[in-house]
Amino acid sequence: MKKTIAVTFAIVSLATAGVLLAGCGSKEKKTEVTVFAAKSLNGVMDELCEKYNSEHPNVTFQTNYDSSGTLMTQIKEGAKCNIFFSAGVSQMDELQAGFDGGDIVEGSRRDLLNNQVCLVTWKGSDTKVTDFSNLSLAKNMALADQTVPVGQYTRKALINAGMAGSEYTEVDQLTDDVISKALGGLEINNCANVGAVASAVAEGANEVGTVYYSDTFGYEDQLDIIEQLPNSLTGDVIYPVAAVESDNISNEELEASEDFLTYLQSEEAVKLFEKYHFTVQ
């Protein structure tokens, strides 16, 4: 009897020691991944990070959502970022060209998603605007800044539709004043990101605005889509994502970032992206 108790105690002791050792190992491998993602990705990325973390408890996330131009500038100025998920190709291209102290990890970039620009109004607005071509019938418009991809796509659509004036051929030329004049004095509410545009229109502060189709998710009771702009006007709305490397990023973070990028292409992730009205490339 005593012998049996002794053996049992030894087994329990070994098992307990194993658990403690595993716990120590787990603690050593704790990794935090910082994700800088376009504002239009806020909802879906929160879900994706939570799901990934539930399956990989050693990896936690810090997220920063804003316009792609703002995020790009923050990264170039030294903000720590492991993954950059942009709503515009040009912002990713600029980072990939290299910046002080960092770069895009070679081979990690994926042009992952497509989206579509939508002209929206608030429910019950009784706006006279029936499509993008008669935008000038609105009294005012929420429009993302020139550094914000959705603002750039909207300006490109104005040029391609011949609504900006023949002398304007570049997106950077279309300041708010130029657009207002071209559209018969339409009042422009300059917004810092696409989320601000969606909120301004949903609250009735502005009659119309341009957002992504994904931004109408969750606003079904507040926003009406007047028109989904064709790619012939806006160009392809592509969302590239990549891992970022710099002097203050560890090998463990790089490995975790690469694994998360792989997860973003999984069947589970694809279903979530589609739920939020994105199209996976």
UniProtKB/TrEMBL annotation:
Residues spanning the membrane: none
Domain of life of the source: Bacteria
N-terminal signal peptide: 1-22
Keywords for this protein: Metal-binding, Signal
InterPro entries documented for this protein: ModA (IPR005950), ModA/WtpA (IPR050682)
One Pfam family recorded for the sequence: SBP_bac_11
NCBIfam families: modA (TIGR01256)
Family: Belongs to the bacterial solute-binding protein ModA family.
Protein name in UniProt: Molybdate ABC transporter substrate-binding protein
Lineage per the UniProt record: Bacteria, Bacillati, Bacillota, Clostridia, Lachnospirales
Gene encoding the protein: modA
